[in-house]
């Protein structure tokens, strides 16, 4: 595998996701400029204002820029309001508009008991295409600190091809699980994924304690638990009585996208 797939997932946050960038030699010479001017700016500066009557275009642009920089990280309305200078009620509307334009995807938070919050104070926002971040803030290297959250973004972007919407993340005082799928009928976790751009959890299993704690609270969750890595594949890892499997994030993103497209 993996040299090719590893190279592909490193390139995906910088170039991937737009067929035009593959088939046009002109665009390939400067894909970031194409993504920013022909996609992001047209949607933000022209399409959304005309559709929703937005008068302060720069306000919308500031919010989107803040969300793009924090793609894959937990945010709150209070923090977004302070960092972007946009009122909280306006932020709620703008996020709905950005979701409708397929620029972002919002993911709600649950607790370690898989219970949803009555008042949504915190949530995660993912760019629907990770390469938008590179267009705005510059390309990422494989060792960049931002690669962890962008790997999450790249994997969540594959779920755009699916009608599955019951995806959440779990966070509590002592831990977090990146992806939790809740069953439509009983609203209990059916499977979880821990997204890593690192091989460290394979060598130091204590980094899996958050998954163990979640499974102990939700014992009917399917095993083995998938943990993405940077390079390691191992389908048979046991830690504290819980079964885990490790798969490179590049391979998981590719397989997920291929399976979802095949099912459409």
Task: Characterise the protein shown here.
The protein has 264 residues and is an alpha/beta fold. It has one domain (2-263). Helices cover 48% and strands 20% of the residues. The chain is built from twelve helices and nine strands. It has helices at residues 2-15, 19-23, 25-29, 31-52, 57-69, 77-84, 88-100, 131-137, 147-158, 200-203, 209-217, 249-263, and strands spanning 74-76, 104-110, 122-127, 167-172, 175-182, 189-194, 225-229, 234-239, 242-248. A nine-stranded mixed sheet has the order 1-3-2-4-5-6-7-9-8, sandwiched between helices. Helix 1 (2-15) crosses helix 9 and helix 9 packs parallel to helix 12. The longest helix is centred in the first third of the chain and has 22 residues, at 31-52. The protein is globular. The chain starts with a helix and ends with a helix. Residues 1-11 have low confidence and may be disordered.
